């Protein structure tokens, strides 16, 4: 009998679990916007997503339809989310634009950041903010600190 792995293949130590109002539609959006692949989907007796797992890039994301009666509330119901996702891709411009075309709204335009990433923020139609990023420069902690202070200086 083989030993069970404490962290399953394909997973990382931290895996986001998104509660979504419109989970089926979200899975379609994440496929169009980010190239997500459905790994597993379990429907409840009403046909809602009770649990699903999708793969975006090399990372797993779990999600389910909100169940207000169980205190599982989506950002739509809550009026926002305290959590955002950072999605690293080879071409953030292409993925960001595709995500906006699929229905996301721009929160922060694409720009090259002081910390070495080109990135932009968008809100998906389900209330989560995604920072679509491509790492373009290795920046030391000291240089990052210097650049941040320079950027924060009053004009």
From TrEMBL:
<feature type="domain" description="VOC">
    <location>
        <begin position="10"/>
        <end position="135"/>
    </location>
</feature>
<dbReference type="InterPro" id="IPR004360">
    <property type="entry name" value="Glyas_Fos-R_dOase_dom"/>
</dbReference>
<dbReference type="InterPro" id="IPR037523">
    <property type="entry name" value="VOC_core"/>
</dbReference>
<dbReference type="InterPro" id="IPR029068">
    <property type="entry name" value="Glyas_Bleomycin-R_OHBP_Dase"/>
</dbReference>
<dbReference type="Pfam" id="PF00903">
    <property type="entry name" value="Glyoxalase"/>
</dbReference>
<protein>
    <submittedName>
        <fullName>Glyoxalase/bleomycin resistance protein/dioxygenase</fullName>
    </submittedName>
</protein>
């Amino acid at each position: 009998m083989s030993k069970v792995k404490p962290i399953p293949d394909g997973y990382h130590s931290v895996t986001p679990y998104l509660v979504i109002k419109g989970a089926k539609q979200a899975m379609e959006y994440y496929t169009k916007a980010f190239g997500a692949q459905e790994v597993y989907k379990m429907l409840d007796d009403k046909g809602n997503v009770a649990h699903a797992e999708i793969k975006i890039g090399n990372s797993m994301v779990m999600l389910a339809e909100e169940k207000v009666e169980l205190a599982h509330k989506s950002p739509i119901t809550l009026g926002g989310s305290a959590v955002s996702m950072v999605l690293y891709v080879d071409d953030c411009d292409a993925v960001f634009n595709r995500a906006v075309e699929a229905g996301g709204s721009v929160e922060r335009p694409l720009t090259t950041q002081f910390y070495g990433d080109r990135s932009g923020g968008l809100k998906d139609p389900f209330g989560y903010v995604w920072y679509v990023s491509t790492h373009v420069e290795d920046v030391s902690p000291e240089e990052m600190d210097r650049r941040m202070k320079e950027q924060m200086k009053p004009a």
